[in-house]
Design brief:
By secondary structure, the chain is mainly alpha-helical. It contains nine helices and no strands.
Length: about 180
Amino acid sequence: AQTVAQDTGRTAVATDAQSGPHRDIEKSQNTQAQRAAAHNIIRDAAHLFAKYDLSRITPKDIDALAADLKAARFDDLGFVMALERHGAAYQAEMTASGSVYGPEDPAFDAEAPVNLIEKTRSELALAQRYGLDTDRLESQVLKLEAAQMSRAASAPTGMANPQLAETLVLFQAQRLWIE
């Protein structure tokens, strides 16, 4: 068994035991297990995620989502903390506390929507490029994707899609023109 010190001392550098032809198979199986675990974790909070489009969410809405998850006693505290890092309150606190050096970021807008999933994928790609541990970010991306899929699955089916409405209008106009 590993001690805590050994466990926390892991790096992303592959050893002989980690590399080889079977590593890809193991990674694929691990990813499938991680996806299943992510879906199970998110499933219990699907009703909370249904209110938010993670591909167009504002930092203020990220704060609201994190607050909703905390109020519902969402089990994955690490996920919530990672969400909060993208929120408006965290950005304001870091700027006010001097943790972010230099002047306040003039480009930051708490009302501007961001694609949280793509932003997290970019962080993951950067971590992979620099050989950093990516387990946390991989898990975060899987959970964000599961949350977005649960949002799509829980959307009312009676709601008309704007593209569908446009297509129907164009079809009707074409039909009238032909007559």
